[in-house]
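Throughout our pipeline, every protein is held as a single compact record rather than as scattered files. Nothing more is needed to write down the fold, since each code stands for a local backbone conformation. For reference, a complete record is included directly beneath this paragraph.
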Amino acid sequence: MNMFEHIRQLYQAELYDDLVQLFSVVLSLCESNEESELLTQPQRYQCLVYYGTAYYQQAEYRKAVDLTSEVDVKYKLYQCHMKLKETGEALLALESISTKQRTAKINLALARLYQQDGRDRSALTSYKEVLREHPLALMAVRELLSLGMRGTDVMSMIMGAVPQSTTCDWLVGLIRGFAFMSTKDYTSAITAFRALEAKAGLRDNIHVQDCLAESLFTSGQYTQAIEVFMRVRAIDPLHMHNMDLFAYLLSREKRSKELQSLSQQLMEVNENAVEPWVCMGYYSLNSVNKQNERLVRTVYCAQKAYSINPRCTQALLLKGAALQELNRMQDALLHFHEAVTREPDRFETYQGLVDCYVASHRLKDAVTLATRAFSHLGCSARTSTLLASVLAKSPHTVAKAKPYLEKAMKLDPSYMEAVYIMADILSGEQEYDRSIALIRQALQTQNDARLHEQLADCLAHVNQFQDALDHYHIALSLDPSSVRAREGMERVEKHNEMGLEGSYDVEVEDMGGSDNEPDFDGSDMESTWSETDFSQP
């Protein structure tokens, strides 16, 4: 066995440390004596490839870059530059490969870089090349649809390569679901994935369930999305994709124990992925630890997720929420605005920015953005309620909020946010009987702490103190941390003991807005992420 075969065996056995040590000696001998018989020139070149790969596996990317330079290993150059976050150099490495020599793997990498750079036409061409070589490359299918390619055109590229004898109704259903998602027709997407779910053998398919959960999430059906995400977790506890969305949903419901378990499990799977850090960030955001400590930890986790994948919108939303709680409003606004720019079709990005404007006492800006969301995303229970929630903040516009809330409750009677706001408006106008009737109707299908708190407040106003106490108790049983329920109970008990009238007036604060919209164009998001040192979690 000659020296080359020994080196090749070490490479095939993945003994990279041994390979590096052996070849470094052999290479020195070859360089000092060009006539050395240890390796032929072709063998020496092949060993350099092995050597570069070994450095890559050892995470010594700079050394790997310096070693590899030939066309057939430029993909390794691309990988190294990506690890070093040198996307420009990574793209140049791939583009230097001639079109005829580009494999599907190279075209896929090119397409993703083009897409990240906003070069959609080039990305479309590269994804098509992937699909021509591998017609069932489903990730390429999804990206082509997201870039605007018609579903029928994608289907024709695929079906021509599938044997006619093969039953492909499941494939057609899957692509239909993808197509509906790309056109933002989430109701039809949910129907398509539900139909797939009903097929024999696909009930517990992790991919179908994940797509269904994503569609439910994006359409605003959060409760159903949580149920499907939990099914995904039951099928595969190691599943990673979309778990950042699941963490957001758990955070909304303050399910801290589940967030802690989820983040720990995902961190054990792959700490170099975005999802574990977003999950950990939401767990910190919901923690009962010291406020500044938990918020700094949240910012660290969000920043870590962003450093792994700068395209992660959920990391921007997470960091924006933490910065808002830290009262760093301008920084929070930058992150929320960037999230809207990244994903202008996601409701949560608008909601984050609107809430931040309201917290910054910029009500006019909040109304402008909520109106924009209503126009861009269309009339739905969520967009109507978002606009109404801002209008309800001022006594000058509260009357305009009511029609939007009535529309929201008609579109989706189960959307409780509209009920909450309408009940508060009615209470503020001292229409307690109407508010009580509205809340009791909602409680027939929903049983949450906030409804019981609102009902108890109204009952106390109409002197039904015992019923009010009962509902405060129910609210606390559902949410032991509820300050509103605890304070309301104390007021009622004080009234019963001392015969004093408690004050239950709901004041609507007039939050003046600013006419000046901040100039976000050209903002340096990279510097925003790194302007504060969060190197210690």
